[in-house]
Amino acid sequence: MELVEPIDRINQQLQREFGVEPDGSPRWRVVWSEDMIEKREMTHTDEGWELLYPEVREVRKYQHITERYILERQVPVFGQTDLVTKTSYEPAWTFQDRHGEYLPPYFDGCKLIIESIFDQVKSAGHHKKYKDEKATKEAKLKEIADMEFKLFGNETPAGDALAHRYGVTDFNQKVNIPAHDEQK
User: Fold this and answer.
1) How far apart are CA 57 and CA 20, in angstroms?
2) Is 62 helix (H, G, I), strand (E, B) or coil?
3) Rg (the chain; Cα; Å)
4) Per-residue pLDDT tens for 62-119?
5) Which residue spans within the chain are E strands per DSSP?
6) DSSP state of 82
């Protein structure tokens, strides 16, 4: 696979730009999907037989992504999980186009993706609700009345009784309806 710039250089720039964790591991990194393995606690064999005791095995991390570079972010692992470690690198971006074709990774692309993620996290929950300055209390009440009419406009007590089944009679009963001639 062709590269625009070496992966080692991209990862050095990511460390310099976005830092490392207290243990020295990078917060962001670019990896090759085929090289990644992780330790997981397994309860079944590869053939599907249940084990008497769980065992830790190394398994391929990206079984669903083949031959692609991936931008990963280090995150803490919370709750019950089969991962053995307290932190994990999770995929933030797979370098491929919308048709699934290979794209080479490069630092400026990684930086754009990371900054976009940070912007989304920063702005989460801070969206201003649209407020129409021209809307008055009367206009709002009229809008509500119009909406009620659209939703329930043809409702009558008889219609409600039929809809909620307390006005329905047994249609199997013989009803004495006068014939057309008898109405005179």
Assistant:
1) 27
2) coil
3) 32
4) 888 889 999 999 988 887 777 777 888 899 999 988 888 888 898 988 999 998 888 8
5) 28-32, 37-44, 50-60, 69-76, 87-94
6) S
CB 29 within 8 A of CB 19: no
Residue 159 token pair: 């219609």
Domain residue extents for the chain: 7-123, 134-170
The answer, as to whether pTM is greater than 0.70, is no
Measured CA angle at 33 (ends 32, 34), to 5 deg: 95
Residue 57 φ then ψ, to 5°: -130, 155
**Residue 131 identity:** K
User: Per residue in 20-44, is it b (16+ CB within 10 Å) or e — as a string?
Assistant: eeeeeebbbbbbebeeeebebeeee
